[in-house]
């Protein structure tokens, strides 16, 4: 009788029957057979007018929805408005009936008409399936409904007991899970129909809706657990399995929240989660079937029937369809589907049995094939191992060649820096300029160390890194690093402070690696500190094992490190700020520090608060040198003056090396090619040959071979000059007949030691031991005139060779272009023009390879550089 109703929504929930019957209250006619308001906080009033054309006095008004909390029927009598109360929040009028079938009795005399008002208020979804029954018809309906309900509940109980008994006999977990699912359906069905409260009554009737929500979530939870096990989602669809686990966790949270959360909000959430769960299970079953698990077929059928019912139910909860449609569809679907899981499980067991037989047969077949193929596979694997071993050896050789080339490319510009610093050394400098020059030299030495680090990183990855064990002054290492980095700190307005506790005068260990760690930590502190102080502390810790445990820390007042990065900061490519514009922010420094500290049997860590600074610390174990090792030794400064043939194709390089050697009294004759050296050796005597390796025409290796073929020159010492100090280069030099190898940039201490080892002329001893400054930096004494002359030669060479390079490119003469680029690269490297040197080296390589496309790009870069 939905179309006979007139509706009024009381949004204030405060209106009484007297207010409602007032003529000013306007009711609207119902537009549907079952008015549906969904979840609402308003009070809904409806009225209807009845005329009794029968002989009956009593009728039953049934509002057939078990989950409405407050229902009040108002009928006007001579005593005034009489109210009758029904609903979940009120006690049963007839204890023999469930809440689902507790109607209003209406008394109206035959032939009379009367208007009735009903007030409805509920936290549940509000739907009004209103029916007027004759007493006999209503009793018949109740009997039929009870019979149908009882039959459904009986089937569910039987399935529950069957599954539970099967589980006790077989101990198959799937049966227990289905038993729990069946029992949860029984509880939910009983609660929705009102039977749970009617016969058990554990909670006040007003809270029965929370019991319904709890059991609805329990049904969904048990179903997901059963579906996950049945479909074997963990094995066949791990991603979907994780989604099912997430839904199980959400549903468990629902069950806890159902105790106190606002019911209307909770009911909406439960409905959406149930809809999502059904969709996920449906999708998971389809994915698993596609991956070959046949039992998922019947499960898809189950979901195809169940999913539309849940959708209809959800539409009813949100006022799109009448709620009773969804309620009835859910009950009918569950009644049909309850026996199907038993069929599902039996089919699954048959499938697994067939799969087991098939797998066993395949295993036996594979075993036979493996036995037959065993000898063949052993031979093939042996051959592959030999091939792999050969390739590995070739790869290692190629890797060594690559590292040698990289070492040469990096050392070339550093040679220019070292040479320029040495040329300025004899100028009349004030204290400040001398300090700056000293810093340049320290930086130069540090760059050389970093080149060695690049080579050693490959050894570190291969497990071939060997730490040095030499005597050094720890305090001097700290002072060197502070001296090196103080200008950079001052540029940023920072104070760099060193605090040392009691430290031994000398220790034994790897000073270069220790310096690398300290430099990296201080550089990071400077980079990420905008103002304030950076304090470096070093102290000796107590030890009982004869070692010298050293603790060093670097504390700054910078930006700090977020907590989430503290455990990751020592991993490769992890940065405090991935968007930093600071140069060198690659994220490798701290990772290398950690590996080096670990190699030194130490630990490294960080303490930091965001925007409050950081403290990086590490400990390493060093050794105490023996007393004999602490004696100051007298070093030679040089050999006695000798006649040296210098073979170097770059004029500026010849000029610098000649100046370095002649300042100690040596006589140097310079030539530009290997062929010139051969010609000169035939007409003039020399005590020693310094031979560059990479030269145009006859290179250093070829020239050395030709020199050794001449009988009268077979014994002259030949020292190689090269930017590559790798083992492969050393082997090549030895094979060509060279006596030794000195790497660029030149260190006179190393050069003089090599000269002394390969000459028979007596050494010139020092009158007193060398001090620390001379040992660390023995290059002194170029005049201002020499410095200016070298600069002038360099500039003139760059201009002349640049013109030749431009002309060669215009004429497409790649041979002349490569020659000009080679000379520009050497000259630029020796004078510190690193960018120009790199461009020229690439031009030389591209011209040699006739790579025209690359030459266009590089010539454009060269012309832009020359204009600037």
From TrEMBL:
SMART domains assigned: HATPase_c (SM00387), HisKA (SM00388), REC (SM00448)
Catalytic activity: ATP + protein L-histidine = ADP + protein N-phospho-L-histidine
Modified residues (Phosphohistidine): 822
Keywords assigned: Membrane, Phosphoprotein, Transmembrane, Transmembrane helix, Two-component regulatory system
Domain Response regulatory: start-end pairs: 643-759
Spans traversing the lipid bilayer: 147-168, 173-191, 211-231, 243-263, 269-290, 297-318, 324-345
Group of enzyme by EC: transferase
UniProt GO molecular function: ATP binding; phosphorelay sensor kinase activity
InterPro entries: 7TMR_DISM_rcpt_extracell_dom1, 7TMR_DISM_rcpt_extracell_dom2, CheY-like_superfamily, HATPase_C_sf, HATPase_dom, His_kinase_dom, HisK_dim/P_dom, HisK_dim/P_sf
EC number(s) recorded for this UniProt protein: 2.7.13.3
One annotated Gene Ontology cellular component of this protein: plasma membrane
Domain Histidine kinase residue range list: 405-624
Domain of life, per lineage: Bacteria
Annotated protein name in UniProt: histidine kinase
Organism of derivation: Glaciecola punicea ACAM 611
């Amino acid at each position: 009788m939905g179309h006979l109703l007139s509706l009024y929504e009381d949004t204030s929930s405060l209106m009484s029957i007297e207010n409602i019957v007032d003529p000013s209250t306007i009711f609207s006619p119902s537009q549907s057979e079952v008015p549906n308001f969904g979840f609402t906080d308003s009070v809904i009033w409806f009225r209807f007018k009845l005329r009794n054309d029968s002989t009956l006095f009593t009728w039953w008004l049934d509002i057939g929805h078990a989950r409405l909390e407050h229902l009040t029927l108002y009928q006007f009598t001579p005593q005034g408005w009489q109210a009758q109360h029904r609903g979940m929040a009120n006690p049963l009028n007839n204890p023999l009936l469930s809440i689902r079938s507790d109607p209003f009795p209406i008394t109206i005399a035959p032939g009379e008409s009367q208007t009735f008002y009903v007030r409805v208020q509920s936290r549940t979804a509000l739907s009004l399936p209103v029916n007027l029954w004759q007493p006999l018809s209503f009793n018949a309906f109740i009997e039929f409904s009870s019979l149908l309900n009882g039959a459904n509940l009986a089937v569910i109980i039987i399935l529950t007991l069957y599954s539970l008994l099967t589980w006790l006999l077989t101990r198959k977990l799937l049966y227990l899970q289905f038993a729990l699912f069946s029992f949860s359906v029984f509880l939910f069905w009983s609660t929705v129909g009102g039977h749970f409260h009617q016969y058990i009554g554990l909670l006040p009737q007003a809270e029965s809706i929370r019991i319904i929500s709890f059991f609805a979530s329990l049904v969904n939870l048990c179903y997901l657990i059963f579906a996950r096990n049945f479909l074997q989602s963990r094995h066949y669809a791990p991603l979907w399995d994780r989604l099912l686990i997430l839904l199980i966790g959400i549903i468990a949270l629902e069950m806890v929240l159902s105790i106190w959360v606002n019911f209307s909000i909770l009911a909406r959430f439960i409905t959406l989660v149930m809809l999502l769960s059904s969709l996920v299970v449906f999708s998971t079953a389809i994915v698993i079937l596609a991956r070959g698990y046949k039992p998922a077929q019947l499960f898809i059928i189950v979901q195809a029937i169940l999913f539309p019912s849940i959708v209809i139910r959800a539409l009813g909860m949100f006022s799109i369809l009448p709620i009773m449609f969804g309620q009835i569809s859910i009950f009918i679907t569950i009644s049909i589907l309850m026996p199907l899981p038993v069929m599902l499980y039996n089919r699954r067991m048959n499938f697994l049995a067939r799969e087991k037989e098939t797998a066993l047969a395949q295993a036996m077949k594979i075993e036979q094939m493996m036995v037959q193929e065993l000898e063949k596979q052993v031979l093939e694997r042996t051959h592959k191992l030999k091939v792999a071993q050969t390739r590995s050896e070739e790869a290692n050789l190629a890797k060594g060649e690559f590292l040698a080339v990289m070492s040469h490319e990096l050392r070339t510009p550093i040679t220019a820096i070292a040479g320029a610093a040495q040329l300025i050394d004899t100028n009349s400098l004030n204290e400040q300029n001398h300090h700056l020059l000293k810093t340049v030299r320290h930086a130069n030495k540090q760059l050389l160390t970093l080149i060695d680090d690049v080579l050693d990183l490959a050894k570190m990855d291969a497990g071939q890194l060997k730490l040095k064990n030499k005597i050094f002054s720890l305090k001097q290492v700290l002072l060197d690093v502070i001296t090196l980095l103080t200008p950079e700190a001052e540029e940023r307005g920072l104070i760099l402070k060193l605090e040392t506790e009691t430290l031994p005068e000398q220790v034994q260990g790897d000073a270069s690696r220790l310096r690398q760690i300290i430099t990296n930590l201080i550089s990071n502190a400077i980079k990420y500190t905008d103002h304030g102080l950076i304090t470096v502390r070093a102290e000796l810790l107590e030890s009982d094992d004869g070692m010298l445990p050293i603790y060093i820390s670097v504390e700054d007042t910078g930006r700090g490190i977020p907590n989430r990065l503290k455990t990751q900061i020592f991993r490769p490519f992890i940065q405090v700020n991935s968007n930093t514009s600071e140069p060198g922010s690659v994220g490798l420094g701290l990772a290398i520090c950690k590996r080096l500290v670990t190699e030194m049997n130490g630990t490294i860590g960080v303490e930091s608060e965001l925007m409050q600074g950081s403290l990086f610390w590490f400990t390493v174990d060093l050794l105490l040198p023996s007393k004999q090792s602490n004696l100051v030794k007298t070093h030679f400064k040089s050999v006695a003056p000798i006649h040296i043939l210098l073979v170097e194709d770059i004029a500026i390089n010849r000029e610098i090396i000649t100046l370095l050697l002649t300042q100690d009294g040596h006589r140097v004759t310079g030539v530009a090619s290997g062929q010139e050296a051969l010609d000169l050796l035939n007409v003039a005597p020399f005590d020693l040959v310094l031979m560059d390796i990479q030269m145009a025409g006859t290179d250093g290796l070829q020239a050395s071979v030709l020199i050794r073929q001449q009988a009268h020159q077979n014994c002259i010492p030949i020292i190689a000059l090269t930017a590559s100090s790798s083992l492969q280069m050393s082997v090549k030099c030895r094979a060509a007949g060279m006596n030794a190898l000195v790497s660029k940039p030149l260190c006179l201490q190393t050069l003089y030691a090599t000269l002394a080892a390969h000459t028979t002329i007596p050494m010139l001893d020092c009158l007193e031991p060398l001090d620390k400054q001379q040992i660390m930096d023995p290059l002194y004494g170029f005049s201002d005139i020499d410095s200016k002359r070298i600069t002038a030669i360099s500039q003139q060479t760059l201009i002349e060779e640049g013109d030749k390079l431009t002309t060669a490119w215009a004429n497409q003469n790649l041979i002349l272009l490569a020659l000009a680029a080679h000379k520009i690269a050497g000259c630029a490297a020796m004078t510190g023009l690193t960018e120009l040197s790199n461009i020229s080296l690439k031009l030389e390589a591209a011209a040699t390879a006739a790579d025209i496309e690359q030459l266009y790009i590089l010539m454009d870069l060269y012309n832009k550089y020359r204009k600037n």
